[in-house]
Model the fold of this input.
Amino acid sequence: MNTAFRKTLQHRAAALAALTALALPPAAQALGTEVVAQGLDSPWALAFLPDGRMLVTEKVGRLRFVGRDGQLGAPLAGLPPIAVKGQCGLLDLVVDPDFAKNGLLFWTFAEPGPDGSSGTNSTAVARGRLVGDRLTEVRTIFSQKPKVASSAHCGSRIVFGRDGHLYVGLGDRFSQKDEAQNPANHLGKVVRINRDGQAPADNPKLDPAAPEVWSLGHRNIQGAALQPGTGVLWTVEHGPQGGDEINTPEAGKNYGWPLLTFGRNYGTGTRIGEEGPKPGFEQPLKVWVPSIAPSGMAFVTSTRYAGWQGQMLVGALAGQALVRLTINGREVTGEERVLTDLKRRIRDVRQGPDGYIYLLTDGADGQLLRVTP
Done:
């Protein structure tokens, strides 16, 4: 990176910090971590079951139990074919809110093209019923259109809204960034679907070719969570060479990519679009310059961490930290980076039923960690 561009980034980072860090978070508390499980290969998502076990997805195409004692189970059979390539593979996982009654799981994955190869693929959502240690009645309920020859920007996170619908963040697939502005497809969008994959009747209907689209103008959503109390959906997405964003996607609204972004072209550092504000587009609630490569996101409701209730946690891949954000309504008011001494890429962040925060670290030697105050 040349000196002039570095100085430009520093000036812009200082200006953005002044806008978003309006108040300092409470004084940091001492934190530790305990290894719950290890030996995971590129773990991506964590989910908790009512019986105390956990499920972990591995990007390489495996779904595994983690026992109460931390022991890893054998990969579950029944997953559909998965295109494992680059940033894509088996991705997010959520447990149906009515799991105790219906046993349903939902997950996202890179779905191969019609010929079964990973050359062309798209992010898809599948559903299956967990019966004992088996997946049954597995079917793909939604497939991102179009399929693209890409191994990048698959997204994706799933969140069950309080309305009972699934909100799924989808990437622009990197090579198709301009399509994030096209409401007739699913690239660079948040989609809202029923449990069967169909579009709800009250979706914004931006284009009849893609009735599932909820919001557009996203780059590569890697974290999503509902805010306690309000039920508002929050998302975090990667920007290019800076410009990571936090947003609260709303029906029919446009979040700018690639027309409005604080990111820059890789290598050259040249401008991609405008920074805004601009009529017709939503400004991000928080921007990181340079990029931290944000990933999993969770809100804290637990009393185990003094002063953290209502705050947001975001994992950082490039930043190798757990980022704590203070929130006031829909305003991000402060930031603290913790657990930097781990020197690990943090892929997912979840609050467990026991009130502890759990992390998945990225890579071929991935771990499931419990954060201890």
Q: What stands out?
A: The radius of gyration is 19 Å. The longest helix spans residues 3-20. The CA atoms of residues 20 and 333 lie 6 Å apart.
